[in-house]
Amino acid sequence: MLRGAGIRRKVCLNTPVPRDWKNFLRNNENKKELFSLISEKIIGRAGKEIISTAGPTIRCSRLNCLHPGLQPCNHEEADTRLLLHAKEASQAGHKSIIIRTVDTDVIVISLAAFADINLEALWIAFGTGKDFELIPIHRVFNKIGPEKAAALPFFHAFTGSDTTSAFNKYGKKSAWETLNNFPEVLTAFQVLSNKPKDVETLMCDIEQFVVLMYDKTSSQTSVNKCRKELFTKKSRFFDGLPPTRAALIQHVLRCAYQAGYCWGQCLEKEQELPDPAIWGWTAAGDGEWAPNWSLLPEASLACQELLSCGCKSCNTKRCKCKKAMLKCTMLCKCEDCENGYKRTEHMENHNTDDDDEGNETANYTDDINEDL
What we know:
This protein is mainly alpha-helical. 44% of the residues lie in helices and 9% in strands. Strand 6 and strand 7 form a beta hairpin.
């Protein structure tokens, strides 16, 4: 949800096309003015009925064009608004529709909403250049079935989308294979794709799905236990471990918000969106939202006994231990420490302990020799 600011430029007919197009589109005001200009000019084409959006309302090339099913509309994303227009066209008698896009989200939303649009054929003109292709949504829908189609929005958000994160080293192909091998999770995905009220009751199946995605042979049902097993018994590195349960819950919340509320209400002109703060997001200021990755504290804060410094004498404010208001320990590299740790004393005590242990060993050896 966080986006770069970009450079603000006034958009009008005689404005030169910016060289840095991506930077230009990062500014929301630039995009608003650009889309408003296109929306106004495109409906002037003669001989065609053209409907374009203008904020919450629409513009139409035909006079007295009302289309109450399209306005007022509060969709934040054009992806969902495309399907709302497709539904309106279907109700007007059109049975075959083509949607032009370069966004994978539109394909997913189209498959999930196809059963409710009442079309004979829905095509997606996807990609550009050599990668351009026509995707028959109606055929794909019939092939995967209505159950998987209804679960696709959450599956897509859960495995990574424009607004949700993905699992490290495990993409959609691995997740799809896991879904086919563990169809029990389909019900949970369907519920989370349609304005869910709660996620906690569904976490059992979702946890097991994640476990199987990371380790197909695992018998664990908890991601925390799976993390421990993969790390201690299978020598898996940290970047190959599943998320903690606390982090997974926040991820599920964000994905449920995106799939169940933003995409799940694509056929409703006025969406009812809940507070993002209770769905895995945290306010970042200026109307922006940032992911709430986990409710657990950072390891560096929760395990301060593992903190160490590399000072020589710890007489400066830069000492990590002093900053944390902790005494230095034997983990630190300091020698003449002024923060409560004396390495020389510790070494002397350690040597004394070694001597005592050596004396005990010698006495024990003498006793054995006497017995022999």
